[in-house]
Amino acid sequence: MNNFKWLAFTLIFCVSLGLLSLFFAYKSPLARFIIADYFFDDGSKVLAIGSSTISLVPEEYFVACGQLRRRGIGNSTIDDAIRYVNLAPRSNDISRVFVYVGENDIHYGQDVDFVLSRLLVLIEGLLKKYPDGVVHLIALKLSPARSESHESFLSFNQRVKYHTLMFNEGRVVFESHFLGIAEDKHYFLDDMVHLNEYGYSTVFSFVEHRCQK
Questions:
Q1: Residues in contact with 41: Cβ distance below 8 Å, sequence separation at least 6, in sequence order
Q2: CA dist 108 to 7, 17, 77, 140, 149, Å?
Q3: Would you place residue 5 in the very low, low, confident or very high pLDDT band (cuts 50, 70, 90)?
Q4: Which fold has domain 41-211?
């Protein structure tokens, strides 16, 4: 009888611990995304991954792409994106992946060479995970509040543009549209980091053209 009580207690404890762990994990955006990808197939054809520039972009710019799987995490880094790709299920349905990463890494002190090396890891992971997908690398924007990092942002953009030539058959495309708005304050929210509606409408209109091809 005592053994049965002990077994029952152990079982209840383990189940409770598992549920508690799942609860706290689900509060993490990354965990929520992975759970959704595995258990709630939404038929997405397009993936958008990156930092708050992705999480805040109005969904209307992706209408021409079909169902959007948005996987943006505010204040995230390239390694967060790599972790997502490593954990996400493989999919032949994703036809395009829009990526905005690197701004936070560089602004918070990471060397451009290191950030570029991590980006290449991310690209390789995306090409394997989504074998029929085209990867669109979006150039880093020159946020007025991050002017001390602009030189590094521009260097990163130029090197990313060069490295896209390493990949065959147009599988990786560099999108330089952010460079057109430079550091004009009219494109940004009051924090001078994030784009406002005008900024998004100016830059992300390219998405519709890509998806209509």
A1: none
A2: 50, 36, 10, 14, 9
A3: low
A4: Rossmann fold (3.40.50)
